[in-house]
Each structure stands twice: as C-alpha cells, then as structure tokens.
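TICKET: design request
STATUS: open
ATTACHED STRUCTURE:
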C-alpha cells in the first residue's frame, strides 16, 4: 500500500499542471487492488476544501470525486464507512464535507455533541452552536 498526498489527487482530478499532472496520473495508474493507494481523512478534507475554494468546483462535482475514490478497487480510505456516511450527508445537506466527517467521527468515538461556531454545521449536522 502507498499513501497518497493531497497534491497527487488534485493533479490527477484537476489536471492543471503540465509537469505534475502526468506524474500524478502515472502514480494513480500504477495502483492496483494488490498495491492500493491509501487516503487519509486529512487528505480528503484538504482535497474537498481545495476543489471548492481554489478550483471552484460545485458540490455535485466534489461528491463525484469522493464517490470515485470510494468505489475504486485501487484505493483504501481511512475510516471508509465514515467517509461513505459523510458523502451521504454532504450530498443531502449544505454542510462542508469536512464538517460531515468531523460530526460522524465524533459520534463514532462516543461524543455526545460537537461544539462549533459554524451555523450551517449546527443546523444541518446537529452540532451545538456556541453563541
């Protein structure tokens, strides 16, 4: 298994750099079920944030990227079930993907609530808004 950094995934999906994109594509094509790529929750958070803020992708396009990673036989995602549930929340609410994963991860660890200053996360994910 080989760990993948955010920049590899960005170059692979966005194809915005003439030098780095071919290297990222080659790396992704070299993965297999026998030698998969591993993606951490932090990489997914960075990936979705960058796709939204820097590359201005809409929620549907970002959800498609996450779904492709989840459905790939060549990838292993950290806490895959939480990522699947997070993708569902992301697709059915206005909350950011990272906030969805934060809420689900906290619940899985036994937290009774997650406190936040984010009104959308409080409204859509049941976090407790600090006022």
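STATUS: resolved
RESOLUTION: sequence designed for all positions
ATTACHED SEQUENCE:
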């Amino acid at each position: 298994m080989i760990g993948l950094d955010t920049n590899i995934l960005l170059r692979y999906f966005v194809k915005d750099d003439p030098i780095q994109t071919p290297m990222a594509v080659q790396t992704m094509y070299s993965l297999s079920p026998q030698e998969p790529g591993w993606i951490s929750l932090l990489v997914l958070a960075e990936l979705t944030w960058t796709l939204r803020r820097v590359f201005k992708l809409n929620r549907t396009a970002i959800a498609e990227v996450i779904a492709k990673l989840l459905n790939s036989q060549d990838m292993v995602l950290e806490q895959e079930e939480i990522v699947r549930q997070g993708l569902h929340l992301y697709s059915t609410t206005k909350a950011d993907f990272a906030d969805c994963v934060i809420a689900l991860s906290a619940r899985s660890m036994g937290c009774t609530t997650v406190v936040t200053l984010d009104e959308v996360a409080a409204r859509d994910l049941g976090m407790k808004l600090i006022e």
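CLOSING REMARK: The mean pLDDT is 96. The beta strands are 2-3, 37-39, 75-77, 115-116, 128-129.
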